[in-house]
Design goal:
- Chains A, B: Catalyzes the reversible formation of acyl-phosphate (acyl-PO(4)) from acyl-[acyl-carrier-protein] (acyl-ACP). This enzyme utilizes acyl-ACP as fatty acyl donor, but not acyl-CoA.
- Two copies of one chain form a homodimer.
- The first copy, chain A, is of the alpha/beta class.
- The first copy, chain A, folds into two domains: 1-134 and 306-358, 3-Layer(aba) Sandwich (Rossmann fold); 138-298, Isopropylmalate Dehydrogenase (3-Layer(aba) Sandwich), CATH 3.40.718.10.
- Chain A has helices spanning 26-40, 52-60, 84-90, 95-104, 117-128, 165-182, 204-220, 245-270, 274-282, 284-294, 320-335, 338-348, 352-357, and strands spanning 14-19, 44-50, 69-73, 110-113, 138-144, 151-155, 189-193, 223-228, 240-242, 302-305, 310-313.
- An eleven-stranded mixed β-sheet of chain A has the order 3-2-1-4-11-10-5-6-9-7-8, sandwiched between helices.
- In chain A, helix 3 (84-90) crosses helix 5, helix 6 (165-182) packs antiparallel against helix 12 (338-348) and helix 9 packs across helix 10 (284-294).
């Protein structure tokens, strides 16, 4: 599918596979995000997937991208309404499929897509396959928090709606690797999400997972702080919060919705009177500073963990800033050889079942 | 336990049973909240539960409360650390037990407590018992939202960690009654919390519950909007959000934590420079206006639904404003004969099992 007339990326650069299609803002926003990233980071280059006729003119217009983009022609587009099962059956030839394929073949270290999350997860599962020792992959996000880094890792936020005790232990290991390679926290504090911090509370699988994670903490190089509550997702009790994909998905969407409601109310409050309008002008830089700190675009990107290859899911509505943040994260994980380290860590921790047998 | 020397409340007033103890701020904050409420609402009076020696001086100091408070002497206090099971066995003689008892005996229409939620639920279950037709009671809260009333009803937020399809149907009926009597929404829109809005998504019991609630909507007088997501808890797609107590508890705590982090960041942003400090002075009234709109103290009070009697759980850290908001809600529910109407509604809706049998 590669056209020999394409510019070849420089050899030493980290190659990132980018799905140009499927985001709400179209390929122009994706290319703009690549430009932003390429300007900041001279060590990255891209394989861009989508209809060549549409992408080539967008790329050629950007001097920053000269010699740093290979286009893989793919005519098909996965839309937000496509069902994952359909995409698995008929997705070959789409830009999403092609973007994952470049990771599977080893051409690129990591893939980035703004497309349909369910379809991206399903295709990634089928093509990249699960890492040995992992039964359920997970999607991890960075959630704004009051800890030193300013963010906690939360997983799973929706790869699967279920997780048993063994899966939750794997999530802890994956979260630990992600906190180390994505946030630079060497010895993260890990908490298990529950409705109370007392050990007798919560569902049976959570009590089981509690003991399993506790018993592996020392060997795996993290602190287990036990059960944590919803409020700790944005707090400083843990750096990594482990939960099943149903609960995690509800939690981040509740948090995002609440933050957005506060934003609306804040704007209303400042529009109320002439004095408050004046205050809002003076407060502008303060409010922009706040926005930078809690702007979801700046930590844009859920990471699929537990597959043979790293896939970064950017928000569907991501603009250039959002895409650039996702690319930054992808480059960071690729540079750190994140997935190999994660695989080694998971392999080093036998499933509970096997351990009990030995 | 009543001392005949106590002032008798006026006959026509709505009697509210108030647990003076167990909150973080002690009985003085509770009495201050009663004063606030009594000033605004001339039609309420109180039975106050706790150590008479401590409470009588606090009450006597308040002219507003003259002839409006009966003290029920109870020496014991349920603390935040007491386990619910302990309190059920040994709780007799505590102010919490006494407060619930006044509702059980019919003296008061509704009880208010700032104490230990788990213990309050367990004692309420044992003493008031479940309403006929209800298998699991629920705790409902008002969550700030962008709908016309400014709040959605969310339940269950932690009475139980489980809920099957039949329970979720009961939650919908309870939520409907609460939206009507607590928020004044006659024909509320009800949504079922899930990880996506497509009908094929989510756990099996949710798909079952989806169809069950849909089939009862017309008769029960609500609109069923189907599955909703975490972001809709603060949104305008539904007025009532139904979920199990595990998910609901994580959701509200995540939302509260996120709101509190934004508050911290907002204060930091305004302290950053001299100009931003000046802006914060000018913005003061705007920020206070915002705070009033999203202040959790102003909608303080989870309501226990599905018992033979109404219990309002005020936040453990509630101050006078918080206690007063909980009392206001209690008075509103008592005046509307809320619990009788709810019982009639639940009784009118046969459990799915029985329906299938007929």
């Amino acid at each position: 599918m590669t056209d020999p007339s394409d510019r070849s990326p420089a050899k030493a650069r980290t190659l990132i596979s980018v799905d140009a299609m499927g985001g709400d803002q179209g390929p122009a926003a994706v290319v703009a995000g690549m430009v932003k990233s390429a300007k900041i980071n001279p060590d990255i280059a891209f394989i861009l997937h989508g209809p060549r006729s549409e992408l080539a003119p967008l790329v050629e217009r950007q001097p920053t991208l000269a010699d740093r983009v290979t286009i893989h022609d793919a005519e098909g587009v996965v839309t937000m309404d496509d069902k994952p099962s359909q995409v698995v059956r008929q997705g070959k030839g789409t830009s999403m499929y092609s973007a994952i394929e470049a990771v599977r073949s080893g051409e690129a270290s990591v893939a980035v897509s703004c497309g349909n999350t369910g379809a991206l997860m399903a295709l990634s599962m089928i093509r990249l396959r699960k890492m040995p020792g992992v039964n359920r992959p997970a999607i991890a996000v960075l959630y704004p928090s009051s800890n030193a880094q300013g963010f906690n890792v939360l997983l799973d936020v929706g790869a699967d709606i279920r997780a048993d005790a063994d899966d939750l232990l794997r999530f802890a290991l994956m979260g630990k690797s992600y906190a180390r390679n994505g946030l630079g926290v060497d010895h993260p504090r890990i908490g298990l999400l529950n409705v109370g911090t007392e050990e007798h509370k919560g569902r049976t699988e959570l009590k089981e997972a509690h003991d399993l994670i506790r018993d592996h903490a020392a060997d795996a190089g993290f602190d287990f702080v036990g059960f944590v509550e919803g409020g700790d997702i944005s707090g400083d009790r843990a750096d990594v919060i482990v939960t099943d994909g149903f609960t995690g998905n509800i939690a981040i969407k509740t948090g995002e919705g609440t933050a957005s409601l506060i934003g609306i109310r804040l704007r209303e409050a400042f529009k109320y009177s002439i004095l408050s309008r004046l205050a809002s002008v003076l407060a502008y830089t303060s409010l922009m500073r706040l926005r930078r700190k809690i702007d979801p675009r700046r930590v844009n990107g859920g990471v699929f963990l537990g597959l043979n290859g790293t896939v970064v899911k950017s928000h569907g509505s991501a603009d250039a800033t959002g895409v650039s943040a996702a690319i930054k994260l992808a480059a960071q994980l690729a540079d750190n050889g994140f997935n190999d380290k994660l695989a080694a860590r998971v392999a080093a921790t036998l499933p509970a079942q096997q351990e009990n047998d030995t």
